[in-house]
């Protein structure tokens, strides 16, 4: 198992390098000019100097290499410096955003908590709702509860987040006035009242994100439970007189959770991507909104770094899902 | 030797597609989904022939009206008829969905068949599929929209250019699941006796693929086609909603929804129509795919 993990880890390096190259080459074709906003009165030689200051003077392979060094070598050093007070990275050039002229990673670190709070809460809520629904739907297959569950999850698949988000804003914010429609990220939780306010502003984005995840997870949980419910070991467990609760919740559930756990792990990067739209609807200034803003402002270093962070998340969680599957299911040991 | 008891069949043989249709009919959700999808497509494409108000006709005196007989869905902030705009937007959205699905399906089936049939290409092509699956798709789509909008607009005009761009972007980023499913099925079918028989009488590889393999992997391709329409429509609307899709004067359902969010407080119903149209289309297509999957699976059929 360990050798498999190590082999997968080593294999993921060329994958990530290839993805970073694809992203870099895509951006290389960008027609946008970062100097387009500079007034025409600025003489061309000064413009050339400014271009070089942004690191645009060199040919593409050198810039790609520099970006790789900055991302994989200098940024980790900055992080170590930050936590341990050392000075490895003093004087090194970091990935600089064209928009704000400050290091990209600093802005990403600032925006990360907002996204993590909303997305993380939504994921936990969705798992807590989806698993019981899936278990009960499978246990009472074709009952009215199961039919209803199928219909609701079909609707959850089909309603895009930009519609369900706007819809809950219309209902709960405009008509009923229960929740604020804009997520206030400067809000500090320091008392009971502010905590209640934080809860109220989080309910709607979490609800929209959770609906989608619940739809997929509950279907998956149901299918996995159905696969196991007719197995021989379940009949054996019933035959030796175990109570129905123990049979379903211990014997069947533990075996059905194996594929579901991997699906949960695989879904995490996808949910970061999906949060881009939800963040836009509720004006949460997380990394999704940072990406949209950077794209509209033609801020290529920021776009490149953010897209690459999404790619790292996908590769990382694919790896975690594969390893988890091997650990949980002894029938599948990749040796 | 006794004679065969019934040398002449009394009934003509039933076609396979008749069986498929019978199974499909018994799936109530799928039948309703199919009818609904057909109705939406028909009203979107044929509607403009019966509803003679232009989608771009500005009647500033009749702006911000509620539903009435003259304007069943009301009018927008410039007095343009919402019903005409919904039809125009729908025809764009559905066209994008169908074309992008066709492109993704073609790419996916091609790569899947080639990877499954030719052992030498299997490794590289499947690694390529894995790499594509590891790409962050929505951010990349947004970046592609940003980068290639101007050159394509210059080459084909604003409407054609953006249409080609969106269709290609969605097609190129959504062929992977089809390729994987098709490859798996081709690998299994390749080992069957009828393929060996065809090979033994000297059938060329190209004929083997088109005559024997492709018809047998048709059912997974059809199922992923229906699901592909749904994802393509949702992706196009998300791009339009994020402001990176079609230009403002060129309505699509996503764009209409995006424009309507500015008037959310005063006219919430304007958000409702395009959102409902997207959701209903995707819902009907999903049910259609569900029923097709059951109908095309011979193990379920006949039960």
How would you describe this structure in keywords?
heterodimer, A: 335 residues, mainly alpha, 0% strand, globular, B: 303 residues
Protein described:
The complex is a heterodimer of chains A (335) and B (303). Chain A is mostly helical. Chain A has helices at 2-28, 44-53, 60-84, 104-139, 144-158, 161-175, 192-229, 232-239, 244-282, 287-296, 300-328. Chain A is globular, with a radius of gyration of 25 Å. The mean pLDDT of chain A is 81. Chain B is mainly α and 303 residues long. Chain B is 70% helix and 0% strand. Chain B is globular. Chain B starts with 15 loop residues before the first helix and ends in a 7-residue tail after the last helix. The model of chain B has no long low-confidence stretch (mean pLDDT 81). The A-B interface holds A 15, 18-19, 22-23, 26-27, 29-32, 154-155, 157-160, 162-163, 166-167, 169-170, 174-175, 269, 273-274, 276-277, 280, 291-292, 295-296, 298, 303, 306-307, 310-311, 313-315, 318 and B 130-131, 134-140, 142-144, 146-148, 150-151, 230, 234, 237-238, 241-244, 254, 257-258, 261, 264-265, 268, 271-272, 275-276, 278-279, 282-283, 286-287.
Q: Please tally the helical runs of chain B, counting DSSP H or I stretches of 4 or more residues.
A: 12
- Structural class determined from secondary elements of chain B: mainly alpha
Mean pLDDT score of chain A: 81
Number of helices of chain A: 11
Mean pLDDT of chain B: 81
Tell me the β content of chain B: under 5%
Global geometry of chain B: globular
Proportion of strand residues of chain A: under 5%
Q: Indicate the percent of residues in helices of chain B.
A: 55-70%
* Overall strand count of chain A: 0
Distance, first to last CA of chain B: 36 Å
Structural class by helix and strand composition of chain A: mainly alpha
Count all strands of chain B and give the number.
0
Helical percent range of chain A? over 70%
Low-confidence stretches of chain A: none
Radius of gyration of chain A: 25 Å
Largest sheet of chain A: none
Largest interface summary: A-B, 45 and 42 residues
Spell the H/E element sequence of chain B: HHHHHHHHHHHH
The coarse silhouette of chain A is: globular
